[in-house]
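Design a sequence for this backbone.
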């Protein structure tokens, strides 16, 4: 059992705190937002993530997990402190590190004995060194500490599984002492033979960006292929399947769609472009990812206009607003972007999402929110599926068709078979799928 503190009860912080507690550690999770901490004490989760409530409940009841607004209290109790505060992208794409700086200073001011300070949320290369300088400047003389980088690879919707059964754990340190302590915290994962990559802080910091931007590039590549497939009369699903069977390529992250969204891949791509620029390197692939993603959203909008006709005065049904299934996160969601563009062109939009409607209301107040997929279709001149929630995979298509004003479906996730829908009388549009010649 170790005493740990996690500063920041956002996505990474809260999931990590709950999972570390479940490993048997005593964890205090700190956030400056009193409302959030109060809510967590009453088991009110600040976001939706499968399994999280149960994990928080169990570990709170068993007194391994607690919540606080006091960094002082957390620092005095814990030997390792994980920084998991947000690093939003500024207007120029640079990560905003003011939260990290403020927390580093506060930790330093309250330290009385040795502490391991671990940066967990994604931060540009060089942030570990910056944290070390800040802590050095503000801590009492004679108090020693280490700084480490331990990037998190959680995916929204499967975060707990990702934490408990990760593909790898990256441990970036500058001293053996820090490496040993951090490795020991992850010791429960040795039992399931999780590979541990032990390296320097700078390398650990870069690994996270390299992995995320590579994933973004992989999706962007198949999205470009999808557009090419439409131009040449090929089927991107089959192209992706055959590509993925090559083990060097692999089948994951090869699904064509409306473009990448979420709080990570777009932001990390922008940040990588910025810090590579600052290092004097004009990297081409991350820039191309950004251009392709913009183009993909426009491509989807044009596809809807082609399918439905001029949008002014038309009603369009939308299924899915979150950037992907199993989350209520609408940040950088292509669904939100395209819906906004449809509204700006004079369309009326009726929408349903199993989890993200509350979050979407703030960004899209003019949308008419519905109880379910069928209500969305009533009187609509077309139905757009943006997010591949499981419940959209087996819709009662005959009912959908009878409710729509015109049987038009734009399936941005290729969840239905074009031939089957066309046989049912739908005007069906997928992404990168041309009708098979018969
Ligand atoms: C991403 C990474 O996958 C995680 O490994 C990483 O830890 C996390 O960012 C982070 O930095 O914290 P996440 O943002 O939850 O996780 O979302 P992904 O599952 O990666 O999806 C990103 C976007 O790509 C979504 O909009 C999704 O719809 C899209 N996507 C993904 C596709 O369009 N096609 C695919 O084949 C895969």
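Sequence:
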């Amino acid at each position: 059992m170790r005493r740990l503190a996690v500063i920041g009860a956002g996505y990474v912080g809260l999931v990590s705190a709950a999972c570390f507690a479940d490993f048997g550690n005593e964890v205090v999770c700190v956030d400056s937002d009193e409302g959030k901490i109060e809510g967590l004490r009453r088991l009110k989760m600040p976001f939706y993530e499968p399994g999280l409530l149960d994990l928080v409940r169990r570990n709170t009841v068993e007194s391994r997990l607690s919540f606080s607004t006091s960094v002082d209290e957390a620092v005095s109790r814990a030997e390792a402190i994980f920084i998991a505060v947000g690093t939003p992208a500024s207007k120029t794409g640079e990560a905003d590190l003011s939260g990290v700086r403020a927390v580093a200073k506060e930790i330093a001011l309250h330290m009385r004995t040795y502490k391991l300070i671990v940066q967990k949320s994604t931060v540009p290369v060089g942030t570990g060194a910056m944290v070390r300088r800040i802590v050095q400047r503000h801590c009492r003389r004679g108090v020693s500490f280490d700084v480490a980088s331990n990037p998190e690879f959680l995916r929204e919707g499967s975060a707990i599984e990702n934490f408990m059964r990760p593909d790898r754990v990256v441990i970036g340190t500058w001293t053996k002492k820090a490496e040993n302590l951090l490795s020991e915290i992850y010791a429960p994962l040795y039992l399931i033979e999780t590979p541990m990559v032990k390296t320097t802080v700078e390398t650990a910091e870069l690994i996270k960006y390299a992995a995320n931007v590579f994933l973004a590039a992989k999706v962007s590549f198949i999205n470009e292929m999808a557009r090419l497939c439409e131009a040449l009369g090929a089927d991107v699903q089959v192209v992706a399947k055959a590509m993925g069977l090559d083990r060097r390529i692999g089948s994951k992250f090869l699904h064509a769609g409306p473009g990448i969204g979420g709080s990570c891949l777009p932001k990390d791509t922008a940040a990588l472009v910025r810090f590579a620029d600052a290092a004097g390197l004009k990297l081409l692939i991350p820039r191309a990812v950004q251009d392709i993603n913009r183009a993909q959203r426009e491509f989807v909008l044009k596809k809807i206009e082609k399918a439905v006709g001029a949008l002014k005065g038309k009603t369009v049904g939308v299924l899915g607003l979150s950037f992907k299934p199993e989350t209520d996160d609408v940040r950088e969601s292509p669904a939100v972007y395209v819906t906004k563009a449809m509204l700006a062109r004079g369309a009326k939009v009726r929408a349903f999402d199993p989890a993200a409607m509350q979050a979407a209301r703030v960004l899209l107040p003019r949308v008419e929110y519905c109880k379910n997929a069928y209500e969305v279709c009533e009187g609509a001149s077309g139905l757009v599926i943006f997010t591949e929630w499981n419940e959209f995979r087996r819709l009662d298509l005959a009912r959908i068709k009878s409710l729509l004003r015109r049987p038009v479906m734009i399936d941005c996730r290729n969840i239905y078979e074009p031939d089957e829908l066309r046989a049912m009388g739908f005007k069906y549009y997928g992404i990168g799928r041309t009708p098979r010649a018969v």
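Residues 201-232 form the longest helix (32 residues).
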